[in-house]
From TrEMBL:
GO molecular function: DNA binding; DNA-binding transcription factor activity
Entry superkingdom: Bacteria
SMART domains registered for this protein in UniProt: FCD, HTH_GNTR
Record-linked CDD domains: WHTH_GntR (cd07377)
Organism: Microvirga mediterraneensis
Keywords: DNA-binding, Transcription, Transcription regulation
InterPro entries per UniProt: GntR_C, TF_FadR/GntR_C, Tscrpt_reg_HTH_GntR, WH-like_DNA-bd_sf, WH_DNA-bd_sf
Keyword Metal-binding set for record: no
Protein name according to UniProt: GntR family transcriptional regulator
Residues annotated as domain HTH gntR-type: 13-80
Family matches, as Pfam families: FCD, GntR
Amino acid sequence: MNASVRKPKSAAGTRSDSVYAGLRRAIIEQALMPGDKLTEDVIGERFGVSRTIVRTVLARLHAEGLVDMQPNKGATIAQPSLSEAQDVFETRMCLERQVLVRLAEKVTPDDIEHLQRHVNLETKANSQDGAAAIRLAGEFHILLASLSGNRVLARYVDEVVSRCSLILALYSRPHSSDCSIHEHQQIIDALRLRNSQAAVDAMDHHLKAVTDRALLSSTSDKHRDIRSILDRYAS
């Protein structure tokens, strides 16, 4: 057999990826909140998979820092401490500065068009679907990293942006998404001019604004219906 031909994924592997994608999206969109308990039976029931697959998915999310797992206590959505939150935001700022320095050197008109289409989606979602708006705001940064051409950098940005979503769900105050969209547009405008310093300055301003909206107060609801929340993500 030709070694270059990929073997198709097993059915179990496909189901595992589907559950992983659904749970991860629910976390990123802040439908599942820090501290929410993830019961294997509930997840298996909603996604129609075995507990073995659920455990595999939870272990994967745990490795990304999105889920906490403790012996005899099960899994919960991670609850970063204030100290961890500050470290994550500091790391994110360093990573995203490097993304923009690299991207400003190589950005193409097609890249700019891709970024602009994404911001247009953010604008549309902002008035129609709050959960999608939250996810798209994070995906803008992941797209920037992907366009930089550095896969390692892109992987770390993906992870840190996801963890920031948890932090914002736990500590941030309500705010208008219009601010983020405007700040994203400023980054695109600087990249269009291939002005790396202006792009970095725009990102610094944006992430400082995000940080200022976070680390304020923690709110939680102990009586959340996880079954109902997961219904949207299991389809």
